[in-house]
Amino acid sequence: MSVKIRLGILGGGGDSLIGVLHRVASNMFDQYEIVGGVFNPVWEENIGFAKKIGIPADRIYKDFDELVSEEVRLPENKRMQVISILTPNFLHFPMAKKLLENGFNVICEKPLTTSYKEALILKQTQDLSNSVFAVTYTYTGYPMVRQMRKMIEEGQLGKIQKIDVQYYQGWINPVIHDPAKRAATWRLQPEKSGISCCIGDIGTHAFDMIEFVSGLHISKVLSDLNYLYEDNKMDVDGTVLIRCSNGVKGVIRASQIATGEENSFIVKIYGEKAGVKWEQENPNYLFLLEDGQPLRILKPGHAYNSDLSLGGTKLPPGHPEGIFDAMGNIYKGVAKAIKCEPYDPGEFPTITDGIRGMNFIEQTVASNAEGNVWKTLDKL
């Protein structure tokens, strides 16, 4: 019988969507056991939440520093093996760095840090520690996104000609127009969220998705961002023209003021032989478009899909695979890496993906600030 990986969690308490998402995902394949953590900086809420979800109180710590100091004292076969960071953005870097320095594997929410400089330091730290590090660009876990990656990798679309990715939400619309509300929202506070709201939160998903499915690297960006109000320091909407290293051009459209939109993440990749289209709100359908041929719809669970897609499919055809499943697939891949088992590079995003996401965010903001000019991304 295999022994479950001992998982600790930082943040994600109360009614946090991201918290329940990670907890369910970690349990999905019976690979992990949540043994403790710090769910909230307020002790009463922290310990109360732990009791609510059935986590023993002896591994619930008053703060992050106590967690690290106490866990490293435990025998190696008892201490947490991997820790998930689900806190606001500004805490990602100091927490991840200290965890790596103390030998822990890390699963971190995106964006990886609040600056590109921090991200590079984190990579240097990981190189020295040799720990597994995953960044949860959740949508890469969807079976049909993974199928899209393999189809492009195998040349079914031919040479890529056009990329068009849209990520529209409307959640910030009721907040942004009220001065008091926007001042109280942490995602609109640079000291907590970093230099970008919309691009940092959802635009980076679009950026990572393009590189994940296409196999291309975005080399240049030109952005036009929208802040709406002069006293608002964080972008809430934007359009980014992209150029890839091999000359492929495309566009990223991201918005959190798209009134009425829920989570409209649409990916369209067009090649010389065929095109593919995927919509996050209908994740079971991958549309295959070819000149002179009827539209085809590929769905998860069928034998015509790739091993990477089928490996992340848990239900028979016709049964929806949702966002919990996508996150669960990422945790499954990280478990393989921690156990030194063979795994496909597409099974979980790495720290390099997180670093590139930070570089994209900073250059996109700089492009807008400098008058909508082209900015070059670093090669990693």
How would you sum up this structure in a few lines?
InterPro entries: Gfo/Idh/MocA-like_OxRdtase_N, Gfo/Idh/MocA_oxidoreduct, GFO_IDH_MocA-like_dom, NAD(P)-bd_dom_sf. This protein has 380 residues and is an alpha/beta fold. It contains 13 helices and 14 strands.
Write up what this structure looks like.
The protein is an alpha/beta fold and 380 residues long. It starts with a strand and ends with a strand. It folds into two domains: 5-131, Rossmann fold; 142-316 and 351-369, Dihydrodipicolinate Reductase, domain 2, CATH 3.30.360.10. The chain is globular and about 65 Å long. Helices cover 36% and strands 22% of the residues. The model has no long low-confidence stretch (mean pLDDT 94). The strands form two sheets. The protein has a nine-stranded mixed β-sheet. It is built from 13 helices and 14 strands. It has helices spanning 17-27, 43-52, 64-71, 92-101, 116-129, 143-153, 173-176, 179-184, 190-193, 198-214, 307-311, 323-338, 351-369, and strands spanning 5-11, 32-38, 82-86, 105-108, 133-135, 160-168, 218-226, 237-244, 249-255, 264-271, 275-279, 282-289, 296-298, 375-376. Helix 10 packs across helix 13.
